[in-house]
Amino acid sequence: MRLRALTPWLWLAPALLVLVPFFALPLGLLLRNSLGRDEPSGGVEPVFTLENYGSVLTDPFYATVFLNTAGMAAGVGLAALVVGFPYAYAVVRCSARWRGVLLWAVYTPLLVSVIVRVLGWIAITADGGLINAALLATGLSSRPLRILYEVEGMGVGMLHRYLPLMVLPLVNALQRVPWDLLRASSSLGAGPGEGILRIILPLSLPGAVIGFQLVFASVLSDYVLPTLMGTTRFRMLAPALYDEAVTNLATATAAAMAVCALLLVVLMLGLGNLAVRRLAPWARTL
């Protein structure tokens, strides 16, 4: 009986050995630094103060950074949902052979380095890139469009990078949908569009919420794309946090920004789970 009670903890032991030293301890160190005071040399004075949180939450610069990042994360999440749902629907409804091809197209970008993908998007969206070359050649534009190093170009790159995080949860959710309900609604007079809106979309809501949470949290912490494809006129959280810690040697302030970002992610996760419980109580039975 005692061995049976210890069995779950034995299974959890490998994960705990990784999470405790490489997640819990750094998180505690981050929280401790956020409550300290910055020293000119870049260190943290070990005093208890909330000055860093006060400056982060009241300074217009930090407020703009958080609003820009949250807006971009929400926008990319919604765009991924709009683009990813039809694709996931096609994956579930197509034949087994084509399903493998479509899923392969989703998994393959995950195997390519993000730097390589960003360089590819730079070649596509640059002033002399493929998009502008096609627009100029067809006469649709008389001059190159400014896409690279703009918010729009950065958003497209983020959508491409994080679209798989939306498609895969949607595919998993749609595979659990009893498709007999769609045929039953058709026999009762509902059209294909009405069946999708009133049956498929509500039943796939848990996958949509999970995908949105994954995309939102990933965009919130993205450093590479804002640095290589973004603009300093639209500051994002990760590059701003890096500048505070490395360039300005404000370690405590950077720690407070990181803690606020974690709290924002936790808030978003909580709201998403609450929305699923309230709007899709049937999700537990799928």
UniProtKB/TrEMBL annotation:
Cellular compartment(s): Cell membrane
Keywords: Cell membrane, Membrane, Transmembrane, Transmembrane helix, Transport
Principal location listed in the UniProt entry: membrane
Segments traversing the membrane: 60-89, 101-124, 161-179, 199-225, 246-271
Membrane topology: Multi-pass membrane protein
A biological process term (GO) from this entry: transmembrane transport
InterPro entries: MetI-like (IPR000515), MetI-like_sf (IPR035906)
Xref: PROSITE patterns: ABC_TM1
Gene Ontology CC annotation, any one: plasma membrane
SUPFAM superfamilies, per the entry: MetI-like
Residues covered by the ABC transmembrane type-1 domain: 66-270
Family affiliation: Belongs to the binding-protein-dependent transport system permease family. CysTW subfamily.
Name this protein carries in UniProt: Putative spermidine/putrescine transport system permease protein
Organism: Roseococcus suduntuyensis
